[in-house]
Amino acid sequence: MPKKVDRTSSQKFNRRHFVQISAQGLVGVGIGTFAVSNLSLIGCATENASKKVFGACHHDCPDTCSWEIETQSGQVVSFKGSASNPYTAGKLCNKMDHFDSEVVFSPHRLLKPLKRVGAKGQAEFKEVSWEEAISDVAKRINTITSEKGGEAILPFSYGGNEGMVQGKAGRSFFKHIGASNLERTICGDAAVAGIEAVNGQSTGIMPEDIVHSRYIVLWGTNTLYSNQHLWPYIEKARVAGAKLVVVDPFVSATAEAADVHIQPFPGTDTALALGMINIILSEGLQDQEYIDNYTSGFEELKAHVQKYAPQYVSEITGLEITDIEAFAREYATSKPALIRILIGMEHQSNGSSAFRTIGMLPTLTGAWKDLGGGLMHMAYELFGQSLNYSIFDLPEEVSGKKVRSINMVELGKALTDKEMAPSVDALFVYNANPAVTIPNQNLVLAGLKREDLFTVVIEHFMTDTAMYADYVFPATTPFENWDLFTSWATPYININQPAIPPLGAAKPNTEFFRLLAREMGFTEDYLYLEDKSIVQSMLNSDHPYLEGITFDSLEKTGWARLKVPNEWRPHAAGNFNTPSKKCLLYNPDVQPALPDYIAVTQSETDKKSYPLRLLSIKSTRYFLNSSHANITTLRDLEGQPMLDIHELDAKNYGIADGDEVKVFNQRGEVFLKARIKNKVKKGVVCMPQGYWNSLMPKGSSANALTHDLLTDMGGGAAIQDTMVNVMKLA
Ligand SMILES: Nc1nc2c(c(=O)[nH]1)N[C@H]1C(S)=C(S)[C@@H](COP(=O)(O)OP(=O)(O)OC[C@H]3O[C@@H](n4cnc5c(=O)[nH]c(N)nc54)[C@H](O)[C@@H]3O)O[C@H]1N2
Ligand SMILES: Nc1nc2c(c(=O)[nH]1)N[C@H]1C(S)=C(S)[C@@H](COP(=O)(O)OP(=O)(O)OC[C@H]3O[C@@H](n4cnc5c(=O)[nH]c(N)nc54)[C@H](O)[C@@H]3O)O[C@H]1N2
Ligand code: SF4
Ligand SMILES: [Mo]
Prior knowledge:
The protein is an alpha/beta fold. Strand 24 and strand 25 form a beta hairpin. Helix 10 (269-282) crosses helix 14 and helix 10 (269-282) packs parallel to helix 15 (351-358). The chain is globular. The two termini are 25 Å apart. The structure holds ligand MGD (2 copies), iron/sulfur cluster and molybdenum atom. Molybdenum atom binds next to loops. Residues 60-61, 187, 219-222, 225-226, 247-250, 252, 266-267, 269, 342-345, 348, 615, 617-618, 620-621, 623-625, 690, 720 line the site of one ligand MGD.
């Protein structure tokens, strides 16, 4: 049973999952049971020589740090960031500095397949062999597919491993069996849909070029925590005279470090950007020549923004008119002016429109013409264009198979919907921890509790999701497997060579699916691709961005920067990725054709019951989403989660700084301490996302409150469109 966590004892955080060895011979999961002795495991390696291998961080993080591992007689003797990579510059972040001891060789790591023997969610398992476990899974899948069809099976994987090999594992297998398709939209899709609606693609300027910028807007992104390796470049620009503006409804660490912090109400950026356009156009601050040459729909936009007069925008955003005007004027008249957008801001019902509108600003001012001017967003399209993905090609009858799609944001609904035909009867979770990270947590947990749901989890740790599994399989870490890492926000590519053999009975994700395919009697070659050959094949490309970058060269250097042109000004002369090559200020192919500020309406009763807007953001410095939130050292450094509340709201509720409070709504409740540091505006509260439910009082964390509403475009998660109430605990 989830025990009430004594939050004064860090020990408890680690011990939570470890069920006592019972008289019936059940084994506990964790401490001691599968203890990995670093020395005993790798001490038996036969290799005596010293070896250096290259790798990279597998996390869903824009930085994709390069690393080097040295082994001696098969033992890891050194693990560090690669100093040769100028971007990540030999520094891993505080979350990953001790990845070797805190994850790879953690005594809590899962190293044996486990079979459930207790009730769902009780984390009572017994160790089984791979043979037995795979055979059982195969039988169950065969039964389900023959009775209900492949669509009764749902793969659920996300960015826990971003590798081209371990991240994409299982995709062909699930296509082959005709499983339901998972729409993987929780991170970035809404942002990208917004930018694509204007520019046709999301690649903007390259990260290092921010040093040339003299007016930098970090719009809805917490660079100091979430994109740390960009920060030194921002500092360089500041030393050279750049002004730094942060737009964020929360006083993030980055907002605190900025020259100017603009603090709108959550989800109102579309109105703010439309208001800025109104001011820029009415004051004639636009670059009309650039607009005339490289855009379409200018007149429609000009007419549209009339209604976003400063007064109206001030009412929506809660910003002073003078601040909105100053921001618009400074942005339009400073050169080079750069807007850095990333992802966090998309998690609003109007989130995609916010990106879309902000995406128009550099076009209207002609900022794209300057080196260091324009928009900085993603970089993954560069890899999509240049790598060779043909190894993943499937025969038409497999790839073209029509199957239903299930949006990952709506996992709770999909698992509990009684009308759904066929019902989801088997769930495969890997590279993800949905019990913590998916909105409407209690609905997700209700689904995971279903006795008739067969759940398989592949993991490093006994996560809150794995606790509900019927079978848990131990996964390797990047120390133990091959991979190739592209990056979603930099032009750097990394090879990942295994440094040591898999620990215990851990296997790469890919191996799990090869074993399952074999057990199910499938013979198709595309189900048996070898990890190393995937890396080799993807690099086998003559695209100019990959000139001189080969499997052999990466084996020697570890990383490489794509050979994109040195002076990267993608839209200095238009050249947008739209059919007309123009930036689409008005886009009739998208609904609505012009972005508008549209807020979610609440019923009058709900307004009274849940008057506060909740932000649950990745303000954690020591966790990466829910990853690492189980590691005592990092958890201690991060401290307890706090609810930020404005002093006037606190006063209203009779809450003092440090009081224990309950935050609640229709979906759930979360218990934590209040912090009154005015990091949010009146009417807004904020708590961190990432803490494991099982390590929180009464087993629930931020997503117990969040809404599983979708964003306006891109099928993303409007997680931050959540209303709550707060109560002081006696
Ligand atoms: N330390 C750490 N680093 C991480 C992660 C982590 O969990 N911890 N997660 C990784 C992942 S998966 C991702 S996607 C990236 C995300 O990196 P970012 O895009 O930087 O995303 P977030 O930290 O979610 O949000 C950034 C800021 O957006 C603000 N925000 C929320 N709503 C709004 C809004 O309506 N308008 C505006 N203007 N701002 C808003 C939040 O208050 C927050 O401070 O970070 C990655 N890096
Ligand atoms: N309230 C709220 N919710 C959010 C967000 C928010 O800002 N607020 N942010 C959202 C965003 S942007 C994202 S990206 C999602 C992230 O949500 P998830 O993708 O669920 O991310 P993690 O919590 O990091 O879980 C990744 C898991 O993968 C496991 N893993 C790592 N490597 C491997 C491997 O090689 N094999 C296997 N089998 N497993 C591996 C890790 O141990 C970890 O448990 O959360 C979203 N949820
Ligand atoms: S989490 Fe991000 S910053 Fe930290 S090591 Fe990994 S890629 Fe680098
Ligand atoms: Mo993300």
